[in-house]
Design a protein that fits this description.
3 helices, globular, 5-stranded antiparallel beta sheet, Tachylectin-2, Chain A, mainly beta, 21 strands, 4-stranded antiparallel beta sheet
Amino acid sequence: MKASAFCFLATCLALDVFRGAAQPNSRAAEPAAATNANVRQNLRLPEIRLHDPWIFAYAPSKTYYLYTSNNRRVTAVDRPGTMVYRSKDLLNWEGPFVVFALPEGTWAANQPAWAPEVHEYKGRFYLLTTLHNPERVIATPPEVWRTNYMRGTVIASSQSPEGPFTLLKTNGPVPPPDFMTLDGTFYVDKSGQPWMVYAHEWIQKIDGTMEAVPLTEDLASAAGPPVYLFKASDAPWLDEQGTPSPRENHYVTDGPELFRTKDGHLLMLWSSYDRDGYVQTVARSKSGEIKGPWEQLEPLIRPDPGHGMLFHTFDGQLMLVLHRPFNNARAKLYEMSDEGDHLRIIRERTDLDGD
């Protein structure tokens, strides 16, 4: 039997509270980009409060785009959505600009959108972000241990990494609507099949899982049933702190991102909790394919960092960005080494924090 989990209920509930606050399937005309009169110049990363950072390096303009959830107090755009900062050097940032605002008339409620990320695919740009609707209840106790409601990742499309992004599907998330899911990421396998890999909520599963769903060619919807990848309690490092306790065990899966190493290994960055807080960790597919089986490697960084992603600078350096600490979080950058079958941290780039 697996030893005690170390994301206790109170910590997990804090995560849920902090991060959050029906039409036919169709692609609407792209709206005008939302405006923000509060754009600032020459910002440094310590000045930008955010969670779940995603950096997209756009080679044609040599611009880095840092995406995060819309902060209504900063942008004055009173809708769930995504905002972006941009930089030429990872040191000086300009923004924020709102690139996606949830339109009226969708399945989602006026709740903050989580974990945005942007990918280029076949000449267009695709935004993935997680939406919620607490009023659309899936199941209630005693059928389940805790009330389940609609939560899941959607996909929106644009001609530019600066948006505006338009939802491809407005009547539900891409994963099954009766699954509580979050943090969907995009992956294309060796055969060219696009996938969404997502975290299946501990709120629904207790032991959160990573799963994947194949996508249609236009990325508008699922092309088949979900595939199970692994569960959070598979991580052997959880056993390091195992102690007898009357507490319930809750295991969190968060923030997946897929990365193909230089010698062909398939890795997945993901986050969970141990006794000391948030953990940035990594898994490796033994087959080199999305379906695994997956083995859990030692955490990359602890305590209290997480939801990281990898990108390459314009001079070819592999970088990791994550948020740290969990409360009052900021983006932190790390220089990384691709070791073939695993990743190695070279150094934290504190010089990119500025003065």
